[in-house]
Write a structure and sequence with these properties.
By secondary structure, the protein is of the alpha+beta class. Helix content is 32%, strand content 29%. The model has no long low-confidence stretch (mean pLDDT 95).
Length: 432
């Protein structure tokens, strides 16, 4: 089994990710996040927000509508750019206009899918009267909701260029060949910052470099191994881009795109200004000039980050001779549960009572879980497999001495910690 298969199977078995609409035979390119997946994904989004918005003075947040005016997608170039007959390489997934390719993919020699005249944007219809509904699209990227609000944000807050607007949310694409678990889905989430900078080629390229480094270090700060990350410059640029680079993740036999850093020039604001006939220029107090700023974009896939954090954390280890364990060494900040609480024995009410008290107390500060089935060894294995960094066991000594055993997921070391100190102890360890 390769790592993709192992992760897909673990994700289903332990409640991280299920195939979408499974009882109806599935629905290609859609996935449902289960009780553990929703925690992991939310932790990733929260860490993104904390790093990009909460801890920075020059980035503010936004949450725009998914369904927007259809003109937005004409202005953005999506309607035009995706309206050609396309083929997609079955191997490297690069898309080409059918009339511009030979029999095999020029990039990797793979076979093509049949040519299709289709739009990558998902169509939808809005309105209540059949026949006069307005056709529009589910957003193909979360980006445009930010650019159409550029003026609103400038006018209603105190931001000054350089500044950014962050957004996290769903995007939809009619991918020709969805696949590789959640890697290429038709409904997925993006986490982005559109960072507006002066119209200056050199300065804007400095910001581009800055954001490349910032974003790569963010993944590393949450435990992704350095050797599994690299930059890959785009050779062919998208219609809007002046420079583009991907942060790629090493999936073993291949490198895969996880996040894109793009220099979008003034493409978006210029096009929206043209199509909406509104003045979207920015007035610079210092230079007394009106101009359309350039934009550096960081655009990450939340589902891809979730998948690659899982892959990076996945380990199979020999615990002692002949005994293996599967362990997700997720950063504690990302782990679905920060701790699991057990009574040593399930049939001793005094242990259960004490452990329940601790469990309820910890719930106020952390996502924690409870387990009193089977023996301790089995419980440890079950928690290792879902990445719980600490297991707290209440035994008979706990009742007398007021302390518990805390077992560390990665080192498997155990130490006694005072019940009164437990919350502090976990806070420090997890560094929330
Ligand atoms: N606003 C720019 C933009 O959307 P993109 O390279 O098309 O750029 C950015 O997408 C990120 O969104 C990708 O790096 C990837 O992580 C994620 N993404 C794109 N298409 C996806 C899909 N079909 N399934 C899952 N994630 C996807």
């Amino acid at each position: 089994m390769d790592l993709f298969e192992k992760i897909t199977s673990l994700a289903k078995r332990r409640g991280f990710v299920y195939p979408g609409s499974e009882i109806y035979g599935g629905f290609a390119g859609t996935w449902d996040y289960g009780p553990l997946g929703v925690e992991l994904k939310r932790n990733i989004k929260n860490e993104f927000w904390k790093n990009m918005v909460t801890m920075r003075e020059n980035i503010v947040g936004l949450d725009a509508a998914i369904v927007m005016h259809p003109r937005v997608w004409e202005a953005s170039g999506h309607v035009e750019s995706f309206a050609d007959p396309l083929v997609e390489c079955k191997k490297c997934h690069k898309r080409f206009r059918a009339d511009q390719v030979g029999e095999k993919c020029g990039e990797c020699g793979g076979e093509f899918t049949g040519a299709k005249q289709f739009n990558l944007l998902m169509e939808t219809a809005v309105g209540v009267v059949e026949g006069s509904k307005q056709k529009t699209y589910l957003r193909g990227e979360i980006t445009q909701g930010v650019h159409v609000n550029f003026k609103n944000v400038v006018d209603s807050t105190r931001v000054k260029i350089p500044f950014g607007i962050a957004q996290v949310g769903k995007a939809f694409r009619n991918e020709i060949t969805p696949g590789q678990f959640t890697f290429r889905s038709r409904e997925f989430e993006q986490m982005e910052v559109q960072f507006y900078v002066p119209r200056d080629d050199q300065k804007s390229m400095e910001w581009f470099e800055y954001w490349k480094e910032e974003r790569k270090s963010w993944y590393e700060s949450l435990g992704m191994r350095k050797e599994n990350l690299r930059f890959k410059d785009h050779e062919a640029l998208a219609h809007y881009a002046r420079a583009a680079c991907d942060i790629e993740y090493n999936v073993g036999d291949d490198w895969k795109e996880m996040e894109g850093i793009h220099h979008r020039g003034d493409w978006d604001l210029r096009r929206h200004q043209e199509f909406s006939k509104q003045d979207l220029t920015y007035f610079d107090d210092a230079t007394k000039e009106n101009y359309l700023p350039y934009v550096i974009e960081t655009s990450g896939g939340v589902d891809r980050a979730t998948l690659f954090f899982l892959m990076d954390a996945y380990h199979e280890e020999e615990v002692k001779e002949g005994e293996m364990r599967t362990v997700l060494k997720l950063h504690p900040k990302l782990a679905p549960y920060k701790a699991a609480v057990f009574p040593l024995l399930a049939n001793k009410p005094e242990l259960t009572e004490c452990a329940q008290k601790i469990y309820k107390e910890l719930q106020k500060s952390f996502m924690v879980t409870w387990d009193d089935r089977g023996n301790i060894g089995k419980r440890y294995r079950a928690q290792d497999e879902i990445g719980t960094p600490y297991c707290v066991t209440v035994d008979f000594d706990s009742l007398e001495k007021g302390d518990v055993t805390v077992r560390d997921r990665d080192t498997m070391q155990q130490e006694r910690v005072k019940i009164s100190e437990l919350e502090n102890y976990l806070h420090k360890k997890i560094a929330l």
